[in-house]
Protein 1
Amino acid sequence: MSDSTAYVMGHDDRERRRLGLQASILNPFTDQLFRRAGISSGMHVLDIGCGVGDVSLLVARRVGRYGSVTSVDIDSTALGTLETRASTEGMKNIKCVEANIHGWKAGRTFDAVVGRHILIHSQDPLTVLRDCSGLLHQRGLAVFHEYDFSVVHRGWPSTPLRDRLMDVFDRFFARATCANIGSRLWKLLIDAGFEQPDCRAEYPVSGGPDSTYCEWFAESFRSIAPRAIALGVIAESEFDLDRLEQRLREEAAAGNSCLPAPAMVGAFARLRE
């Protein structure tokens, strides 16, 4: 998005595939958040940091043919993927824009702005929200879904490797941006000029050796590993990335353990008059 809101997990094909895997797990939760927030037919919605478009597609289905989604990202390849996906699904209500949200001139205002796991990559999330508020109609709606790595339940029976990974995510984002952005959402929205937000924390739980979570956790860890090493969060020798997914599966199989995902906070609020 910019130097101050840089996506810390990269922009390569492997990361885009990881985002698709993640979306298959998280989309039902985000769609439920949009329903609760009131994203509905005919609305014109801005999706910031849209990536390959999983959130944009969710919104496009909700707003229908008389609504629209403007999807903004700095990654032209990801936007190309979104355009292909939208075309395949016959969706003509998505417009892709390669831009940095800071200083972007939309030439219009929107009914709502949405984002998933965007503010956690920002050094200045309050400025991001204030920039977004300036792109909304009067009483416009903001809807954000953000991780909170300060709240991660341990697996049961015990999963020390998986728990160690979650600890690294917490420490990494605490150093790189802010690991507890989910807990900060309520105040951030207030400070950005919105009314008292509706917030809810939740997370999905899977388990066993066949869980897609093993790949999801391993690939997510692979995405942050180079920067985590550079920041001194982990030693380069601590993890074998090529065997990490298999080790997670073996650990889950040994105890038939549950695998809780990191907590997510969903929040929505309207601009104050």
Protein 2
Amino acid sequence: MLAAHLDPSTDAASRRPETIAREVDWLVRTLELRPGAPVLDLGCGPGLYCAALAARGFVLTGIDISGSSLAYARQAAAEAGLGVTYVHGDYRELDEHDTYDAALLVYHDFGVLSDPDRAALLLRINEALRAGGRFAFDVVSAAADRPERSEWSASIGDGFWRSGPHLVLERQVDYPELALSCREHAVVEETGTATVYRIWEQRFSRERLERELAAAGFVLEHLTADLTGTPWTSAAETLAVVARRR
């Protein structure tokens, strides 16, 4: 996973460096960040956004559940002379109050969470932000097509899911009435051991986002197609949101 995050030629785990640079430019403007502003990056991974924002003079805290990603992030920050604070933990357990001017949750992580987890996380983010603080995130749009499919692949060396030879059986199941889909990956090793991973993806309309945000004390300020500021249309397959704490 760390290798996928750091691969500049693919968007498999993190977006490409040139896209991240454009997103950071847009976020700084739209969040109205001033030098020294405290910013929280939820699910920060190897710290790509934290490093880019810290280099501009903001005070970054990143939270991630991956120890290997954080080890890389800490080393990279030290080598660059950036004073980023990295916290190893589950961002769903965030417990801070009136601390940050802005919070980020990038690359569709919001839609991976269950309905109760999203509702609880929004309340925790609201509490962690200062009055008038902003929360920026992106999701998959209800307009996105998620046809059901199945496929398989084999790897004789290191792959995304495993090192060493393994087989990956993949299928996508869609629940259109819920605007919900699930990608299921069964990874079979040489020994015959199989592990199943399920990645859920909730799709959102503007109306649904507004309801969920309002229930947690947020007002939707900006809606675009992505975090670079591309104008939103009803046909866009992704949505990016900036919400302000009331």
